[in-house]
């Protein structure tokens, strides 16, 4: 089996597993606060961007992947709660801020863990011997998930005296991502100029609740970024394959970032969101020389094969992404959904922005 096809199939299997474990609740708008959610996602990008500038680690966990994983954690946790409990996070600002901060701390840890695991997977060339070896180790140790709260306690104990994140001992076989210390709860609160209602002890308690939830993922969190990354890094193996240039990929990533703030896309398959973002990015790169229908068919065929229902779903998401991108373009800060937002005064730049 071709290397790229194997990678995409691994992602689709992981995505199907996520769908099966997802709450079957109806409209997410009924239990989520769309305005708070959008503001928190923008805050996620600000925090991750600030950490990226601080650590200067291109292969570290401080990138848009952390934001996508964190948002998935936040949404899945809320949607898995009973309705009466979920409504609390729609009306209690302090509770929502606490949950959002906790999910960011966990999301960065999961992203770092994914990067370490991927760095240990053999390259595509090493797997192109015709044997059907798995190239994406989607299954992770359950103990890593179950004891994440204990790992956070250890980090806090090591760095509590000076308020800085601890620097764990990297394993000899791990990648450079191990060398980057994930901030402790205290560090995140300090960066955020967090209100007094949020404390380090409350975050650590919330970590145990989130990681103990039935909605907490036990394998790699599949996002739209994974599909874009595969189509960018893989070599073109067939004439019908879609291969993204770096410029097209960046536009697709930007559209995937924008998709996070649309509450109506919660529950949408990552493969559908990725296909819509890739199709729009390709259309813009061709400057209209190719029609959307043929581009969409090529993208969908590369990811899932011939599936008319999948193409219909992609077309609907394309319309939503176009509307969201148009709104972002005409907003006061048009590029704030991208990484590296403008640097503002430290005391207010990363304040958890739920005040109305």
UniProtKB/TrEMBL annotation:
SMART domains: Cyclin_C. Residues 115-150, 155-174 are annotated as: Disordered. Residues 222-353 form the Cyclin C-terminal domain. It holds the Pfam family Cyclin_C. It comes from the Eukaryota. InterPro entries: Cyclin-like_sf, Cyclin_C-dom. It comes from Skeletonema marinoi. This is Cyclin C-terminal domain-containing protein.
């Amino acid at each position: 089996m071709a290397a790229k096809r194997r990678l995409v199939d691994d992602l689709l299997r992981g995505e199907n597993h996520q769908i099966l474990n997802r709450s079957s609740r109806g409209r997410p708008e009924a239990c989520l606060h769309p305005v708070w959610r959008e503001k928190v996602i923008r805050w996620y990008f600000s925090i991750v961007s600030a950490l990226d500038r601080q650590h200067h680690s291109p292969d570290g966990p401080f990138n848009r992947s952390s934001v996508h994983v964190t948002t998935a954690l936040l949404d899945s946790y809320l949607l898995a709660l009973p309705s009466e409990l979920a409504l609390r996070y729609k009306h209690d600002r302090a509770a929502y801020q606490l949950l959002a901060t906790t999910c960011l701390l966990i999301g960065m840890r999961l992203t770092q863990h994914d990067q370490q695991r991927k760095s240990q997977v053999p390259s595509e060339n090493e797997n192109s011997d015709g044997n059907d070896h798995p190239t994406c180790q989607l299954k992770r140790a359950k103990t890593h998930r179950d004891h994440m709260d204990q790992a956070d306690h250890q980090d806090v104990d090591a760095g509590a005296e000076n308020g800085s994140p601890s620097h764990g001992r990297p394993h000899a076989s791990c990648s450079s991502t191990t060398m980057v210390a994930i901030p402790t709860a205290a560090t995140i609160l300090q960066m955020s100029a967090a209100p007094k209602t949020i404390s380090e002890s409350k975050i650590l308690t919330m970590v145990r609740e989130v990681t103990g939830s039935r909605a907490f993922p036990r394998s790699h969190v599949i996002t739209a970024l994974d599909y874009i990354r595969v189509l960018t890094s893989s070599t073109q193996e067939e004439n019908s394959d879609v291969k993204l240039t770096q410029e097209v990929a960046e536009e697709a990533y930007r559209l995937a970032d924008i998709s996070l703030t649309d509450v109506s896309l919660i529950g949408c398959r990552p493969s559908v969101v990725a296909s819509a973002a890739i199709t729009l990015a390709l259309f813009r790169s061709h400057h209209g020389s190719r029609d959307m229908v043929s581009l969409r068919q090529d993208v969908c065929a590369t990811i899932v094969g011939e599936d008319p229902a999948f193409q219909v779903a992609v077309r609907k998401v394309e319309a939503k992404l176009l509307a969201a991108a148009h709104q972002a373009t005409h907003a006061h800060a048009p590029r704030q959904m991208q990484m590296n937002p403008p640097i503002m005064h430290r005391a207010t730049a990363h304040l958890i922005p739920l005040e109305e």
